[in-house]
Design a protein that fits this description.
Layout lengths: L1 H11 L9 E2 L9 E3 L7 E2 L16 E3 L7 E8 L7 E10 L6 E2 L5 E2 L18 E11 L11 H8 L3 E12 L2
Parallel strand pairs: 3-10
Antiparallel strand pairs: 1-7, 2-4, 5-6, 5-9, 6-8, 9-10
């Protein structure tokens, strides 16, 4: 179920209206944006996308992908975790089709999260309110790393290849 959710959300780094996976490149470029129909930037992440709900990845949409983007990478982490930044979700080599509009593919390579898994792990703070940062990176090449690569390895491989990035931050407090 979690693998299916991972595949589904690699796709959900797409335009959420109408289910169209097109990612548009505005004329003359434009700043990348990462948005969700589930919550606003700096808003509360609904329970369904957390460990207290269905633990499904939220729908995400990216726009303003720079020309020349060959692939995307997505990292979700929590810098407020007591043991230091906790990695909840890492997906890289999300394909982007060539052509007039960039299309996020239905695949991507899963990295390893801080639980040691390769799928999405929703917000699950031990106490208090935590911030969760979803950051999408537009890359000039696919990374070609093996599945299960950790965040540090992914970030090191991305060095010198980032054409643009966008972050969506949500908050969650356990009931």
């Amino acid at each position: 179920m979690r693998r299916l959710a991972l595949a589904a959300v690699a796709v959900m780094v797409l335009a959420c209206s109408g289910g169209d996976p097109a990612v548009t490149v505005p004329p003359g470029g434009g700043a990348m944006q990462l948005t969700s129909t589930a919550f606003d930037h700096e808003g509360d992440i609904p329970r369904e996308y957390t460990c207290d709900g269905a633990d499904l990845p939220p729908p995400l949409a990216v726009s303003g992908v720079p020309a020349g983007t060959a692939g995307l990478a997505l990292i979700m982490d929590d810098p407020d975790a007591p043991a230091g930044t906790w990695d909840h979700w890492i997906v890289f080599d999300i394909p982007v089709a060539a052509g007039g509009s960039e299309t996020v593919g239905r695949s991507g390579t899963p990295g390893v999260n801080s639980w040691g898994g390769s799928d999405y792990g929703g917000p699950c703070p031990p106490g208090g309110t935590h911030r969760y940062f979803f950051t999408i990176y537009a890359l000039d090449d696919q990374l070609g790393l093996p599945a299960g690569s950790d965040k540090e390895t992914v970030l090191a491989a991305m060095e010198g290849h980032v054409l643009g990035q966008a972050t969506l931050m949500g908050r969650y407090t356990r009931p």
